[in-house]
Amino acid sequence: MIKNAIAVVALVAAVAAVAVAAPQKNTKVVAVNTCPITGEDSKAAGGGSTKLTIKGIAYKVNFCCAGCKDSFNKMSAADKEKKVVAASKTSKTKKG
Fold it and tell me: What is the DSSP string of 28-84?
């Protein structure tokens, strides 16, 4: 019983520490200028963008058109991750 109480206290403390931690202001954002759906250049396209974080890396994902953004938003988190990582490898990315 004491072990359970200690475990609960430790868990509550860990959750509180994460909840209180402020996000870093100097987080680098990787711009993905290749549409993750079509593979087309999307830097100057009017398809909009979305932001997401994958494994601690912030990405700004640009789309070639609104239809691709809608398709992307309907994907599972795992599929989004695969598409963004692949697009970031073919894209001329810019950090900052």
Answer: -EEEE-B-TTT--B-SS-SS-EEEEEETTEEEEEE-SSHHHHHHHHTS-HHHHHHHH
Alpha-carbon 94 to chain mean position: 15
Q: How far apart are the first and last CA of the chain?
A: 50
**pTM confidence score:** 0.65
Query: For residues 61 and 69, what is the distance between their CA atoms, to the nearest angstrom?
Result: 9
pLDDT of the chain, 96 residues: tens digit per residue? 665 555 444 554 554 444 333 345 557 899 999 999 999 988 776 789 999 999 899 999 999 999 999 999 999 999 999 999 999 998 664 554
Measured between alpha carbons, how far is 32 from 80 in angstroms, rounded to an integer? 13
